[in-house]
Write a structure and sequence with these properties.
Transmembrane segments: 20-42
Mean pLDDT: 87
Domain PrcB C-terminal: 89-149
Number of domains: 2
Order of helices and strands: HEEHEEEEEE
Largest sheet: 4 strands, mixed
Distance between the termini: 85 Å
Pfam families: PrcB_C (PF14343)
Radius of gyration: 30 Å
Number of helices: 2
Structural class: alpha+beta
InterPro entries: PrcB_C_dom
Protein name: PrcB C-terminal
Strand content: 35-45%
Low-confidence stretches: none
Helix content: 25-40%
Strand order of the largest sheet: 1-5-6-8
Length: 166
């Protein structure tokens, strides 16, 4: 009878251990899921990336100061920010192109805080080239776009991220 009791106790202990292992595993998985959820929520709510509001300017709205400096940069593929009369403008240039039909658009502008009251701008632009056989102006062109932003200060740095569309 004593051996039956020992066997029963051993089976009971094994069952308890198995139950505790499964319970521990479930608790661990729940804890991991909670930690992942919290980190994602913190990243979402405390994200330093802020989308900058902007408006594309037509030729008549471009400040004279920007028209004066644009020739210095139009040969380059780049983004730059200018402060004119207390307002911040973002310019994206595509460089020299052999014909018309090349365009540039700005999809979005993000402001990324870099600490010490510094921030950088990341400008996401879409470049489009003329399609083969498309009728285009037979002259050298310098595609660009100028936007007026809601920013109050110039960025510390500016980065251009481009994508090409057919």
């Amino acid at each position: 009878m004593e051996s039956n009791t020992k066997k029963s106790n051993i089976k009971s202990n094994n069952g308890i251990k198995r139950f505790l292992n499964i319970k521990s595993l479930i608790i661990l998985l729940i804890a991991i899921m909670i930690m992942i959820s919290v980190s994602m929520a913190v990243k979402h709510f405390i994200n330093d990336d802020k989308e900058v509001k902007f408006r594309v300017l037509n030729d008549k709205e471009i400040p004279e100061k920007i028209k004066e400096i644009l020739p210095r940069y139009q040969n380059l593929e780049r983004a730059l920010a200018c402060k004119v009369n207390g307002e911040i403008f973002v310019v994206v240039t595509r460089g020299e192109k052999p014909t018309g039909g090349y365009t540039v658009e700005i999809d979005k502008i993000k402001k990324i805080d870099e600490g010490e009251d510094k921030f950088k701008l990341v400008v996401y632009a879409k470049f489009t080239d003329p399609k083969p056989g498309e009728v285009v102006t037979e002259a050298i062109t310098y595609p660009y776009i100028i936007t007026k932003t809601n920013l109050k200060e110039l960025p510390y740095r500016i980065e251009l991220k481009t994508r090409f569309e057919d």
